[in-house]
Amino acid sequence: MMGKFFKKPGPEMSDRIPPGQYESKGFPVLTYGSTPEVSIENWEFRVWGLAKEARFSWSDIMAMPQSNFTADFHCVTRWSKLDVQWTGVKVTDFMQHIEVNPKAKFIMEHCYGGYTTNISMEDFWREENFFAHTLFGEPLPAEHGGPLRLVVPHLYAWKSAKWINGLEFLNQEELGFWERNGYHRRGEPWAEERYSGF
């Protein structure tokens, strides 16, 4: 099974694949609970908390500057998918469309299906982060988080919330679903921040 789907990285990949990870030959799908099916006609994205409340339709997102990205993707379950190709909206471009209170230090990512995950403003507001709607040239499939997901390449993939539909800006850290169930608050792959207390 390991040899068929996953490959142990050689030393030449030590700058690409974090400790304890295996290179995946495919793009595994891991989801807790059922997969939400949301049409782009009914899709909506909301901003609230320590930010001026705003709502965005699918056409609003598509009217923002669109960019192509190639990024490595690291799952806490010990696989890494290299050179994943996405299209979407940079977080830095999206942030030009909202007003955030300077007191906001953390964000709770909210998703269709009820999933949540927390992230600091410092980790979120980075040039390399983006909201993705296209994967390898095709509309992002629901099982991979479509119609829209956040992608945060420098953290484990559970921080790259699937089916994202809102950002709640906070002045202090609150824990999301997996963080309340034993996962690390931040999830940095190179430090192997997999679980709380480790």
TrEMBL record:
Region (Disordered): 1-21
Pfam families: Oxidored_molyb (PF00174)
InterPro entries, per database record: OxRdtase_Mopterin-bd_dom (IPR000572), OxRdtase_Mopterin-bd_sf (IPR036374)
Start and end residues of each Oxidoreductase molybdopterin-binding domain: 33-178
Name of the protein in its database record: Sulfite oxidase-like oxidoreductase
